[in-house]
Specification:
single chain, Topoisomerase I, Chain A, domain 4, about 60% helix
Amino acid sequence: MSEEVDFILDDTKENMQKGIAHLETELTKIRAGKANTQMLEGIYVEYYGAPTPIGQVANVTVVDARTIGIQPWEKNMLQPIERAIMAANLGINPQNDGVLIRLFLPPLTEERRRELVKRVNGEGEQSKVAIRSIRRDSIEQIKKLQKDGLSEDVAKDAEKEVQELTDRYIALIEKHLEAKEKEIMTV
C-alpha cells in the first residue's frame, strides 16, 4: 500500500512543479518595462500553411532596453509577422521598414503598471487554484486507498505531506509574484 501512497505523493509533486513552470512561463509574457524576446513566445505566424512560432521564421533580438528587432529570414514574411503581432494584442505597434520590424516599448505609466500588477496577481491566483485542485485530487486518491484497506495513520501522514507540499508551492507562487511585481513597479 505504501508504494501507492508514494506514487500519489510523487505525482502530486510533479503536477505542482508543472503548475509553477506554467506560472513562470506566463509571467515572462507580461512585460515589465524592459524589452524581452520572451514576450513574443506564443505568437504564431502562418508560414506555408502551418502556424509557426515567430522565433522559427525570423531572428528576434533585443536592440536596446526598449526595442525588440525582428528580422525575417524571408522578406515575404514581414507582413504576416506584423499582422500576427497586432493580432496578439500586446499593446505595441510594429514598425516595418521593409527589412526589419521594430517593436518600440513605450515607458509604462503608473496606471499601466498597476494594470500589469493586477494581471500578474490574476495569473498567481489561477496557479494557486491549480495547486489546490491538485491537493484535492491527491487527498481524494488517499481516501480511496484508505477505503481499500490503507491504515488510518498512513493516510493521515500522507494527507499531511500533501498539505505541506501545497503550502510550499503556494509560498513559491507568492515569491514569484512578489519578484514580478517589484520588477514591474521599478521605474
